[in-house]
Write a structure and sequence with these properties.
Elements (H helix, E strand, L loop, with lengths): L10 H16 L1 H11 L4 H22 L3 H4 L1 H21 L3 H27 L4 H22 L8 H13 L1 H4 L10 H6 L6 H23 L1 H8 L4 H25 L6 H19 L4 H29 L4 H54 L32 H4 L9 H4 L3 H14 L1
Helix pairs in contact: 1-6, 1-7, 1-8, 2-3, 3-6, 3-16, 5-6, 5-8, 6-15, 6-16, 7-13, 7-15, 11-16, 13-15, 14-15, 14-16, 15-16
Length: 441
């Protein structure tokens, strides 16, 4: 049975799909704030609704990680966008809490599906770091524009949900430019098996869960810090968030320009340590200057580090499975973030929460850097690794798909043997033959 792999899709469909999947987590502060302000929900309950959204997104990632090669990106991307439009549209159009929560969960699953397909496509691209940088640039610009626009369009809890649904609907044409199943037959089964480098991938996914949890814990209560502790209005908060996301655009642009010339360990390790300091600064701010400085610096560094982490996950498995698993783990950490942030704020106060989160970020910086150090791209011939796949010290790569797959694998293998008459003419054979003749005489 033949095994064909289509050409990688163009950049813009993956970037568009990445934006549609990521915009919901980026808008989480305004989503939670409006749920608290316009529905009969306490701040903790509104945070739980946001957690339900992100849990739906994480569930999609874990569910689809092994199915994308078999099903193909196009149908799964369309399914995710359709669920996002229906779910967020339902949450925007009603005030009934059960329907709002159900719509949020369905929409979150749709967002996670779009993110998973985009992550798998980015991992299989020739330059995953550049692709992830473009995706983060797009989602930062989209979220920044929405933060500037939504406060001027009126109140109500449904406006952020309607905006997310609109972004998903606009991404529908991009899904049509994606391919079908990437493999067929037994090759599809092989490509959907256990990803290579399980130890490094598990460490990366676990660290990314905690990495995302700490930052989403702060992001989920950033509106509360700005309003209660720094004394800012909603409009001022929107401006600060928009400027912060604009700083993220500059940071990702710089990261894209440098590419991988700096390697991955330094941006990931030093960047995570810098984020820890920004978290502490933001959580302890008691005025506009401190709050804005912490948010802007934090959002300038965060997408830079994330782009390198996405590239690291892609390097562990160019088929994209670790990128999808890592993205799902990140979504799971993001889902738990608002609840963890609220609990820590209640237990230790907002500044104490910042210290705890900053310490946790410093704790995961070491393992993340270690994975980045050991995930160097080694010689292709070492242990049968495929072209372009990394060789990790201490780990055995997965078997290469090349020699045993593809159209040539279906053809019978012909082994050319030296004819017997030629063997008889070799010097050794000739001497043996003469000795046997003498014995017979």
């Amino acid at each position: 049975m033949s095994d064909t792999t289509p050409a990688p899709p163009a950049a813009w469909p993956l970037v568009t799909l990445f934006t549609a999947g990521y915009v919901a987590p980026y808008l989480l502060p305004t989503v939670v704030g409006r749920l608290d302000a316009h529905l009969p929900l306490s701040p903790a309950q509104a945070g739980l609704v946001g957690t339900a959204l992100l849990l739906g997104s994480a569930t999609a990632g874990f569910t689809l990680a092994s199915r994308i090669p078999r099903r193909g990106p196009r149908p799964l991307a369309r399914l995710g966008l359709l669920l996002a439009v229906l779910g967020y549209g339902t949450a925007a159009s009603t005030s009934l809490l059960p329907l709002v929560v159900a719509g949020v969960v369905v929409g979150g699953f749709g967002s996670g599906s779009a993110t998973a397909v985009a992550a798998a496509g980015i991992a299989g691209h020739r330059d995953p770091h550049r692709m992830s940088s473009l995706g983060l640039l797009s989602v930062s610009a989209t979220a920044g524009a929405l933060y500037l626009t939504l406060p001027h369009l009126g109140g109500g809890h449904g406006l952020p949900f309607a905006a997310i649904a609109l972004v998903a609907a606009l991404a529908w044409p991009a899904a049509g430019r994606l391919g079908g199943p990437t493999r067929s037959g037994p090759a599809a089964v092989r490509s959907s098996g256990r990803p290579p480098y399980p130890r490094a991938g598990a460490v990366l996914a676990g660290c990314l869960l905690l990495w995302s949890l700490t930052q989403e814990a702060l992001w989920g209560v950033s509106g509360r810090i700005g309003a209660e502790q720094a004394g800012l209005s909603e409009a001022t908060l929107g401006v600060v968030f928009a400027v912060a996301l604009g700083a993220g655009l500059l940071g990702v642009t710089g990261a894209s320009a440098f590419g991988t010339r700096l390697g991955r360990p330094v941006p990931i390790g030093a960047g995570t340590a810098a984020i820890a300091g920004c978290v502490v600064l933001t959580a302890s701010a008691d005025g506009l200057a401190g709050f804005a400085a912490g948010e802007i610096l934090w959002n300038a560094v965060y997408p830079v580090v994330l782009s390198y982490v996405i590239g690291l996950a892609a390097a562990l498995d160019p088929r994209g499975r670790w990128a999808v698993f890592a993205g799902a783990a990140s979504s799971l950490g993001t889902a738990c973030g608002p609840v963890v942030g609220s609990l820590l704020a209640e237990a230790f106060g907002l500044p104490g929460m910042g210290l705890v989160l900053g310490g946790l970020l410093l704790a995961v910086a070491g393992p993340l850097t270690a994975v980045a150090v050991h995930a160097g791209r080694g010689p292709v011939a070492a242990a049968g690794a495929t072209a372009g796949e990394p060789v990790l010290r201490g780990e055995v790569p997965a078997p290469a798909p090349g020699p045993g797959t593809g159209p040539a694998a279906d053809a019978p293998v012909r082994v050319r043997r030296t004819p017997r008459r030629i063997l008889l003419l070799t010097p050794t054979a000739a001497r043996t033959r003469r000795a046997a003749a003498k014995d017979r005489l």
